[in-house]
Design brief:
The structure holds two protein chains of two kinds. By secondary structure, chain A is of the alpha/beta class. Chain A has twelve helices and eleven strands. Chain A is globular and about 65 Å long. Chain B contains 30 helices and no strands. Classes of the chains: A alpha/beta, B mainly alpha. Chains A and B meet through α2, β2, α3 and α5 of A and α3, α17 and α22 of B.
Chain lengths: 347, 661
């Protein structure tokens, strides 16, 4: 009996060992299979906006370079599926896209937060997506024109300042509203401008005093002389972390006075980290997601990619897929009342 | 103009005349002409296609290619408008009216000659205005604020009065309905979703391309399905070289009209958001208002081709003004072009007017030369192209319909585009049949949202004081001058119409039923809008009230006024129209069932074989050839995201493998 039991235990261990070996070879086999998987296939990169916008530009540069970092070198094809400020694409990705790793997508940075803020139309759980990464960790600014009375953010707390905005769900409208609600600033938002550059033109001709929600990388790329020549005042940085160029401009999170204010601000500006987000549908095979994540980060360090991005003046400050996923999990763990308060400010 | 600017301009011309660049420019022009001819392809698509090929070109060569392509799209887009009544691009919709009427009279050659010559003249004027104004661009644009833009949109809307023709009540109602359509979407202040009916599709508003194709192309093709004649009718098409020269001569004779419409097109082109979809109509309305003997407009008057074509080609020069001077794209194609500028290290703004002045002038010269080359190619080739109008309707109709559906789908790559196309096709058919002018609807749809936008910004910033700014006063004075005669005539006509109303036995005629349906829709719209916040509902409700009042007055006139003379139409007309729309519904069903490209093949084949009793071989051949072209252009080159189909869901491997079903 004794020997039988020992033999049995040994056999059991053997079985475990064998099972482990099989498993190990299995993973190797599936890694191999993933490499083979992309060979000769198309990998489609969907863009939630029409041709020509910022998200489209980023995606097309990425599409040109990412293939060489994916084993099997698939043909990467950018496709535009525009609609509802890219909400349509996010819904499609969650509900209808093939889940075999042949499709990934980029959509608006605010879109992952729609369900949390109770905004209408979202049919996905943001944490379910296979997050591949973000190509830039944005730092946006509030600026005032040189002739404005407002030269520091504190002055905007006592004096009204007119800022231009685009659509109701855009940064240029939502950022100043949240600042008004949380920090007590007195921005008056004139929305409806057709685009960001139209606001800048309106500022230049004196129609509005400033713009709240203007990417620092865009400012340095398009109006470097305005910064060096002090034609604009940099009031505040809107991000979770300061930009290395700007140690002396106050950061929005540092101005929060209470923990609740801090939470609201973090919830609002978390989108900056996912400035140019890329995601695969929920539930794609984990080894293929890992391949895409690695390929994404490798591309972000690829000198040829960076040269192309520099030509187009696209800022590249990559955030990895796991980091994006972690951030979204944290944000989605925010107490419900904080989300409700932010949601009320945005309406 | 300062001497150094002229020097830079000459230097730029030298750069461009270098043989390889010239060759690249010609290549761009040929691609652009092709894109203009195919309905559904726009400059945006062309630029997106070509930009990757410019990575390794130097900036002047790259711009020669890109602008060569973009410049001539509006030169060739009216070819299909003249031949089939299907605008090749939204900008040619106005040309359909008189251009297609000319083709039906057998004057396709003359229409072509006039169109190409007007395009050339307009393009040159646009380029010259851009070239001359380069040194003063920035100060000029800094003087134009939101109130001035608002005044321009009011000017555009005022054209409704002339575009309504002899049906003032219906014209006003159509414009107000267009304005209501423009309000659909999520762009309202405060983020209220206006009239989106729980669909994401309508969040971005009603898309223009399917609406324009539905309103203008489908009814025109329905006409073809009813008459089943060659487009050139029984006229032996008169497409000799001399007939084309006659068209060119027409342009020379009407040089003053050409110049005015070109300047108008350039000015409107410089306003962000005012695209070619309305510039052609505004020019058409303006020509009708300002020309003598304008009653022949609409029945094949050559001036109805000259006015929209010259203004639309001048537009590109205007479009480039805010793009170059401030990096503010005046339209979607300019937004893409901005990306190309950046890629080649050009930052729009002051640098373009100082440091990179030579490149700016390369752009101006590229536009100029592209127009000359494009017009020459078209003039030489149009004799051959006009032969298409002699093809039998039975062959032409199914093929053109397939292209119209693919084109509409390029609107936003959504099933909604196809529903919109079909819906507006039916609406367009009724409007055409019951004498409702369609252009005011397009005008309202395009300008409506701009009007609301600048009205909101202007009143928020200046209260009512915006009216008193000098430039605004000047523009509004022009509007008043333009409106005075049409408005007094309109009031007179309305009163005259209503005075003929007498007591007559009430009879619900089909036109009256159409008006009643519209009234019901307006009432539903009003009720659903009542809960919106005040600033959000101000413009939509105003539009609703105008639409309601005018449609109701029109209904009174239709029910109680003198009985209209029924248009002559054969007994077979009604069943043929119903059959035509049934075939279109079948095409939709096929797309849902087996995927877009296969559906096109099956549709063309069955329509030819069983709809028109064509031969098996012919039907198969045309079906295969058209599907192949659609596949090459829209799938292989443009990677269109096709809708899912039942067959594709059933056979996922086939779907993934082919990407087509």
């Amino acid at each position: 009996m004794e020997t039988m039991a020992v033999a049995g235990r040994l056999a059991g261990r053997g079985a475990v060992l064998i099972a482990l070996l099989v498993l190990a070879s299995g993973t190797r086999a599936s890694a191999q299979a993933s490499a083979d998987f992309y060979k000769g296939r198309n990998l489609e990169l969907y863009v939630g906006y029409s041709v020509g916008g910022g998200y489209d530009l980023y995606a097309r540069v990425l599409a040109r370079h990412i293939a060489k970092h994916i084993p099997g070198n698939p043909t990467v094809i950018p496709k535009n599926m525009e609609g509802a400020g890219s909400l349509r694409l996010a819904n499609w990705l969650a509900r209808a896209a093939p889940r075999d790793g042949t499709v990934f997508a980029t959509f608006g940075r605010g879109v992952p937060f729609y369900p949390l803020l109770g905004l209408p139309g979202a049919q996905f759980k943001a944490t379910d997506f296979g997050w591949i990464g973000s190509a830039s960790n944005e730092v946006s600014m509030c600026v005032s024109w040189g002739t404005s009375k407002i030269t520091k953010i504190e002055e905007a707390e006592t004096t009204q300042m007119v800022v231009g905005g685009t659509g109701p769900s855009d940064d240029t409208v939502q950022f100043p509203r949240v600042l008004n609600g949380v920090l007590g600033t007195k921005f008056k938002v004139i929305s409806s401008y057709p685009g960001g550059n139209d606001i800048v033109l309106a500022m230049e001709r004196g129609e509005v005093e400033g713009r709240c929600g203007w990417s620092w990388s865009t400012i340095t790329a398009t109006r470097p002389d305005w910064v060096s020549g002090k034609k604009i005042h940099l009031l505040i940085q809107l991000a979770l972390h300061k930009h290395p160029d700007l140690p002396d401009v106050p950061l929005v999170t540092d101005l929060a006075k209470t923990p609740e204010q801090k939470n609201i601000i973090k919830l609002m500006f978390a989108r900056q980290v996912v400035g140019r987000p890329y995601a695969a549908p929920p539930g794609i095979p984990s080894e293929r997601l890992a391949l895409l994540r690695r390929a994404f980060m490798d591309t972000m360090a690829d000198p040829e990619f960076l040269a192309d991005a520099k030509k187009l003046e696209l800022e590249i400050s990559p955030v990895s897929g796991p980091e994006v996923e972690q951030l979204l999990r944290e944000v989605y763990a925010t107490p419900a009342d904080v989300a409700q308060k932010l949601s009320a400010l945005l309406k | 103009m300062p001497a150094d600017v002229i020097g830079e301009a000459w230097h730029a011309l030298g750069l461009l005349l270098e043989p390889t660049r010239l060759l690249v420019l010609v290549l761009g022009v040929i691609i652009g002409l092709g894109i203009g001819i195919l309905p559904g392809l726009s400059g945006v698509v062309g630029l997106a296609l070509l930009i990757p090929f410019t990575y390794h070109l130097d900036p002047p060569t790259a711009f020669a290619l890109l602008l060569g392509m973009a410049a001539v799209i509006t030169s060739s887009d009216f070819i299909t408008a003249v031949l089939f009544g299907v605008p090749g691009h939204v900008g040619a919709a106005a040309t359909v009216i008189d251009g297609h009427a000319m083709a039906r009279k057998g004057e396709a050659g003359r229409a072509f000659g006039a169109g190409f010559a007007a395009s050339l003249a307009g393009g040159l004027v646009g380029a010259v205005v851009l070239g001359v104004s380069v040194p003063v661009l920035r100060p000029l644009l800094l003087g134009i604020g939101s109130p001035e833009l608002l005044a321009f949109t009011i000017f555009g809307l005022s054209m409704v009065a002339t575009l309504s023709g002899r049906a003032p009540l219906k014209g006003l109602a159509a414009a107000a309905l267009g304005l209501m359509l423009a309000m659909v979407g999520s762009r309202a202040q405060g983020g209220t979703l206006r009239w989106t009916f729980e669909t994401l599709y309508l969040w971005d508003g009603v898309p223009l391309v399917p609406v324009v194709l539905g309103l203008f192309a489908l009814p025109e093709l329905a006409e073809l399905a009813v008459t089943r004649q060659r487009i050139a009718g029984e006229h032996v098409a008169n497409i000799t070289l001399s007939s084309q020269w006659q068209g060119v001569g027409d342009v020379a004779k009407h040089w003053w009209l050409v110049l005015r419409c070109s300047l108008l097109g350039t000015a409107l082109g410089a306003i962000p958001g005012v695209g070619s979809a309305v510039i052609d109509w505004i020019a058409y309305g303006y020509a009708q208002r300002s020309e003598r003997n304008a009653e022949t407009f609409g029945s094949g008057d050559v001036r109805g081709v000259i006015a929209p074509e010259s203004s639309n080609n001048a537009k590109e020069g205007g479009h480039l003004v805010p793009t170059i001077a401030f990096g503010v794209p005046a339209g979607a194609s300019m937004a893409v072009l901005l990306g190309a500028f950046l890629m080649h290290g050009l930052q729009p703004g002051p640098d373009m007017l100082t440091k990179h002045l030579d490149l700016t002038y390369t752009i101006v010269w590229s536009l100029t030369l592209a127009h000359v080359i494009g017009a020459s190619i078209c003039l030489l080739g149009s004799r051959w192209l006009a032969q298409i109008s002699r093809i039998r309707a039975e062959i032409l109709l199914p093929i053109v319909l397939a292209f119209v559906f693919v084109a509409a789908f390029q609107g936003s790559h959504d099933w909604g585009d196809l529903y919109t196309l079909l819906l507006f096709g039916v609406v367009g058919w009724f409007m055409k049949d019951f004498g409702w002018p369609r252009p005011p609807l397009v005008l309202g749809l395009v300008i409506g949202s701009l009007f609301e936008r600048y009205l909101f910004i202007s009143t928020e910033l200046y209260g009512l004081g915006w009216v008193l700014r000098p430039v605004v006063l000047v523009i509004l004075a022009i509007v008043a001058w333009c409106l005075y005669r049409p408005l007094s005539k309109l009031a007179f006509d309305v009163i005259a119409q209503l005075r003929t109303v007498g007591v007559r036995r009430f009879r619900l005629t089909p036109p009256a039923a159409f008006s009643l349906t519209i009234i019901a829709l307006i009432l539903v719209a009003i009720i659903s809008a009542l809960d919106w916040p005040t600033p959000t509902k101000l413009v939509p409700l105003t539009a609703c009230v105008i639409a309601l009042v005018t449609t109701t007055l029109n209904l009174v006139y239709e029910v109680l006024g003198p009985e209209p003379v029924a248009p002559e139409r054969s007994q077979r007309a009604a069943p043929r129209v119903i059959a035509y729309f049934a075939w279109l519904v079948l095409l939709l069903a096929l797309i849902a069932l087996i995927g877009f490209i296969p559906a096109i093949g099956v549709f063309i084949f069955s329509y030819m074989r069983w709809g028109f009793r064509e031969s098996w071989v012919g039907s198969l051949g045309y079906a295969a050839a058209t599907s192949l072209v659609c596949w090459l252009v829209f799938d292989l080159a443009l990677h269109a995201a096709w809708p899912r189909s039942w067959l594709g869901d059933l056979l996922p491997n086939l779907s993934a493998g082919s990407g087509l079903i």
